[in-house]
Amino acid sequence: MNERESVEREVVATPVGLSFAERVTFEHWERAGRQIARVVNSSAWYLGDWLVFGQDRYEGRYQQSVAELGLEYQTLRNYARVARGFPYPRRRVELSFQHHAEVAALPPQEQDRWLDAAQRGGWSRNALRAALRGSKRDDAGWVVLPKVSVTNESVQRWRHAASRTNAELEVWIVRSLDRAAETTPGAGEHRDRFATDVLGVNG
């Protein structure tokens, strides 16, 4: 029995939820989460493409099908807006639907620039949103930091610490760096303004 079959035996999907075997391991539970995330991400693209096709091909009739299927039309319209704004060849497999949604209102060239940055930097959707917000506030002062490799143990420890302060991981990291800069001798005059100017975080 291969690893995927093992996961499928320990985590069973039904139309109304998931059923977990008592013996399910942390690794299998975590892998199931990644698989679900991929399905959710793909389903947004699928539904968006489905509605775009219906709007273009069956004008005047597609809304009835949406209603009969019990789908939320406003949500579908949002999916369709993103799907229409990103023709298939421009979609980034490495990034989520939500990454694309964050930049959907920008001109195509700007969309690609931001998605390139998110892909290179391994940014989460929230990190991309923060960078976009910071760019609007002070474009001249925004800097893309290099991607840093750390251990999974460190990331998990940071996530726990961030969750205890009800902060996103990226915001918590910036706050921590800002506090470290504050306590460095002679650094007071050169305080890193990234947290307050880019992310809108107040200490």
Share of residues in strands: under 5%
| Largest sheet descriptor | 2 strands, antiparallel
Radius of gyration: 21 Å
Q: Could you estimate the helical fraction of the residues in percent?
A: 55-70%
Helix-strand makeup class: mainly alpha
H-E string:
HEEHHHHHHHHH
Low-confidence stretches: 194-203
Counting DSSP E segments of at least 2 residues, the number of strands comes to: 2
Tell the overall outline. flat
Task: Name a few traits of the molecule.
mainly alpha, flat
Task: Provide structural commentary.
The protein is mostly helical and 203 residues long. It is built from 10 helices and 2 strands, in the order H-E-E-H-H-H-H-H-H-H-H-H. It has a two-stranded antiparallel ribbon. Helix 5 runs parallel beside helix 7.
What order do the helices and strands come in, and which of them pair?
Elements: H1 3-10, E1 11-14, E2 17-20, H2 26-57, H3 62-68, H4 73-85, H5 97-103, H6 108-121, H7 125-138, H8 152-164, H9 169-183, H10 194-198
Antiparallel strand pairs: 1-2
Helix pairs in contact: 2-4, 5-7, 8-9
Task: Summarize the entry for a quick read.
By secondary structure, the chain is mainly alpha-helical.
